[in-house]
Amino acid sequence: LDVIGTVEPRIAAAIRAELDDQRSALKLIASENYASPAVLLAMGNWFSDKYAEGTVGRRFYAGCANVDTVEAIAAEHARTVFGAAHAYVQPHSGIDANLVAFWAILADRVEAPALRRAQARHVNDLNDDDWAALRRELGDQRLLGMSLDAGGHLTHGFRPNISGKMFQQRAYGVDPNTGRIDYAALRQTAREFRPLILLAGYSAYPRRINFATMREIADEVGAVLMVDMAHFAGLVAGQVLTGDDDPVPHAHIVSTTTHKTLRGPRGGMVLCQPELADQVDRGCPMVLGGPLPHVIAAKAVALAEAGTADFRTYAQQVVDNATALADGLKRRGVTLVTGGTDNHLALIDVSAHGLTGRQAEAALLNAGIVTNRNAIPQDPNGAWYTSGIRIGTPALTTRGLGTNEMDHIADLIHTVLANTQPTADSKAKYTLDPALAAKLASRAAELLTPYP
Ligand code: PLP
Q: Core-most of 202, 316, 331, 378, by most CB within 10 Å?
């Protein structure tokens, strides 16, 4: 920070303030974590200066020997940790990983001369005729993914996202009574819709998915099974999700982020069966900018950590803590979508307290608890105000908090929800006694004191 401060002190101050905030906040955002110092340090170094389009041993730039070393090690760790046939570690984020996977599937499965021509060139070199031909060839392809309000991600075919534009899209939801995926209904939808891609995975679904059943459904309709394990990759690496809960042996292709439960640097990755490897490796420059070798170095370090016994202990504790938090909330009368959790996250239905997700999120923040609002199935308040609060345990588990602390946190959350009043004229405004909020915030801070 001293070095940065000599150049731009405001940035040094902001970095310092972020550290302070992250230390003092009860971080329950299900997609966040704390990467280790080894991971952070691997990201801040001279690899940042290197260009390396292409893949290991086949670069469009000279002088990539060290990048080759780093990328090969990261891919090797990824294959080992996940038991995958092939790993592509270049995607800069989860959304990028999904784009790489989509284009690899299209290129492998669709007879499309314009696509072949496009792949042989840089995307900037495509003219209007090329794009028109591509649209004709690819415009009829179908994607079946989980709907946003059921817990899917916007890249799973949601209209405003490119995935909802490049594919004809249909969504599957959850059973309105149980909040869980209804595999029989999904099978029926797949039979009718006959998608090219059946996409499984979630951002806000508090339950495990049966990937063996998903594969069966995909096979029945001749679809490619793609799994986006961005949220639960750490639980797969940590061997909490095994057998039918582990997507890797069942899916044709798996995309992920590296920074959520997996606890690595911000980034993405694609794992796949051998037949898709060649197309996946064309991700850059087809849909990705030049690789970030410093981040790939950090991915390698994080994946090395993910292969250890300590990481397996962490992954189990993440789930134990989520269960304890959910149980604590339920005991206090808080409503949870699906009635609980069996992964790292839970979804609170705050409408029972007369609140929107937006009001509850702000009130919780006021009391030192950082969460995010989230739509719940068939949400009457839509995706902006919502009726839900998503909570997850990866970050606090990394810090060392256990099931006892989770019960205290459940009490804090319940106290906030029970004492927050909505204002009649706004879905965003609320009142919470400032003295109570301050008392709760100091209890939240106390919980963290033993785990700096
Ligand atoms: N896929 C899923 C299931 C996610 O939850 C997310 C992030 O929220 C992403 C993809 C996108 O990841 P990124 O923000 O790294 O692009």
A: 202
Whether 372 is in the pocket of ligand 1, judged by its Cβ within 6 Å, is: no
Among 155, 255, 269, name the best residue to mutate to test ligand 1's pocket (greatest count of ligand atoms within 8 A of Cβ): 155
DSSP assignment string, 360-415: HHHHHHHTTEE-EEE--TT-TTHHHH-SEEEEE-HHHHHHT--HHHHHHHHHHHHH
Report whether the peptide linkage leading into residue 285 is cis, meaning its omega lies within 30 degrees of zero.
yes
Per-residue pLDDT of the chain (452 residues; tens, 9 = 90+): 999 999 999 999 999 999 999 998 899 999 999 999 999 999 999 999 999 999 999 999 999 999 999 999 999 999 999 999 999 999 999 999 999 999 999 989 987 777 777 766 666 677 888 778 877 777 779 999 999 999 999 999 998 888 988 899 999 999 999 999 999 999 999 999 999 999 999 999 999 999 999 999 999 999 999 999 999 999 999 999 999 999 999 999 999 999 999 999 999 999 999 999 999 999 998 899 999 999 999 999 999 999 999 999 999 999 999 999 999 999 999 999 999 999 999 999 999 999 999 999 999 999 999 999 999 999 999 989 999 999 999 999 999 999 999 999 999 999 999 999 999 889 999 999 999 999 999 999 999 999 98
- With a threshold of 0.90, tell me whether the complex ipTM lies above it: yes
Assess contact for 387 and 350: CB atoms under 8 A.
Answer: yes
Return the closest-CA partner of residue 114 out of 101, 128, 100.
128
- Residues making up the annotated binding site are 148, 152-154
Assess whether the C-beta atom of 153 lies below 6 angstroms from ligand 1: yes
Catalytic residue, chosen from 256, 257, 261, 393, is 257
Catalytic one of 137, 149, 228, 327: 228
Return the residue whose CA atom lies nearest to atom 2 of ligand 1.
230
Q: Is the CB–ligand 1 distance for residue 203 below 6 Å?
A: yes
- Radius of gyration of the chain from its Cα atoms, rounded to whole angstroms: 22
